[in-house]
């Protein structure tokens, strides 16, 4: 199978990745993402956005837009524009699922997806999608929030939208424009949790073609300032994932908070 010609039709759904794990992170996790048909466009062109779900990269199944809280993108000047994804039409996979984004301004764009927060409580009868409150037989509970970003450009990359802090619970903020990277470069990213630098957390990075399982080409940890440096070893579509777990804070409601942020981009 050749990458050049096919980049592949299923790769049209790769850009935005959110780690959605129903069991653990990172092993055997689902990865949920908004995908773009590609990452570099002409000014005045149209980017097409898709929603996908998979256990490992790059294989994809259609995701469920109704599980999401919001979709939006920032143009290079930082102006926010919301959009809506509709449910997929299996009879018209690539033509009807995608939502077009008009790229009227030259520069680097940032797109984001936010999943609706959910409680998942295990009981002897199975999993309940609610907190422990009101359940007399709750065994354990997890509260889940996941976020995603994708970075792409029209014409020449530029502007500061890519490093905008969106105020998400957990967030990966690149400190350099990913659209300008080449193989061999380092990408510094700042990881924030509840608006503050997240210290000592694992940051995983990989690219399409490295593995068809959840293996990573590069893993590091954030420093005292919340910054991690990712070595970009190869050209291609890259994914950076930061999973984070902590006690929920109110054991009467839930036990564990589970959070993840994933950012994707392409390196030429």
**Rg of Cα set:** 18 Å
Strand residue content: over 45%
- Unreliable stretches covering 5 or more consecutive residues: 1-28, 92-97
Total number of beta strands: 20
By oligomeric state, this entry counts as: single chain
Number of domains: 1
Helix amount, in percent? Answer: under 10%
For this entry, give a set of tags:
268 residues, disordered N terminus, globular, 2 helices, eleven-stranded mixed β-sheet, 3% helix, single chain, mainly beta, five-stranded antiparallel β-sheet
What this model shows, in words?
- There is one protein chain.
- With 268 residues, this protein is mainly beta.
- The protein has one domain.
- 3% of the residues lie in helices and 47% in strands.
- It is built from two helices and 20 strands.
- Strands 3, 6, 7, 9, 10, 11, 12, 16, 17, 19 and 20 form an eleven-stranded mixed beta sheet that branches. Strands 1, 2, 4, 5 and 8 form a five-stranded antiparallel beta sheet that branches.
- A hairpin with a 2-residue loop joins strand 10 (118-123) and strand 11.
- The longest helix has 4 residues, at 3-6.
- It is globular, with a radius of gyration of 18 Å.
- The chain starts with a helix and ends with a strand.
- Mean pLDDT is 83; it is low at 1-28 and 92-97.
Topology:
Blueprint (H helix, E strand, L loop, with lengths): L2 H4 L11 E3 L9 E7 L3 E2 L3 E10 L6 E2 L5 E7 L5 E3 L10 H4 L2 E5 L3 E9 L2 E6 L2 E3 L11 E15 L15 E5 L11 E8 L2 E2 L4 E6 L10 E4 L5 E5 L4 E12 L8 E12 L1
Parallel strand pairs: 3-12, 12-20
Antiparallel strand pairs: 1-2, 2-4, 4-5, 4-8, 6-7, 6-9, 9-12, 10-11, 10-12, 13-14, 14-15, 14-18, 16-17, 16-19, 19-20
């Amino acid at each position: 199978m050749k990458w050049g010609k096919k980049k592949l039709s299923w790769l049209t759904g790769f850009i935005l990745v959110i780690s959605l794990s129903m069991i653990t992170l990172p092993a055997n996790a689902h990865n949920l993402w908004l995908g773009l048909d590609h990452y570099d466009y002409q000014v005045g062109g149209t980017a097409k956005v898709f929603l996908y779900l998979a256990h490992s990269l790059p294989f994809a199944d259609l995701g469920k837009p109704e599980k999401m809280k919001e979709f939006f993108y920032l143009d290079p000047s930082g102006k926010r524009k919301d959009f809506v994804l509709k449910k997929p039409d299996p009879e018209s996979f690539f033509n009807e699922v995608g939502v077009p984004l008009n790229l009227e301004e030259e520069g680097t764009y940032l797109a984001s997806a936010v999943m609706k927060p959910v409680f998942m409580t295990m009981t002897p009868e199975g999993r309940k999608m609610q907190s422990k409150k009101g359940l007399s037989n709750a065994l354990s509970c997890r509260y889940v929030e996941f976020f995603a970003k994708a970075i792409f450009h029209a014409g020449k990359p530029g502007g500061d939208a890519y490093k905008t802090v969106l105020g998400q619970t957990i967030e990966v903020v690149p400190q350099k424009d990913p659209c300008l990277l080449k193989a061999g470069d380092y990408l510094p990213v700042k990881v924030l949790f509840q608006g503050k630098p997240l210290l000592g957390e694992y940051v995983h990075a990989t690219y399409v073609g490295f593995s068809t399982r959840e293996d990573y080409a590069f893993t590091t940890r954030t420093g005292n300032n919340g910054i991690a440096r990712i070595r970009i070893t190869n050209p291609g579509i890259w994914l950076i994932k930061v999973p984070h777990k902590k006690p929920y804070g109110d054991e009467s409601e839930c036990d564990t908070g589970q959070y993840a942020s994933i950012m994707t981009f392409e390196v030429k």
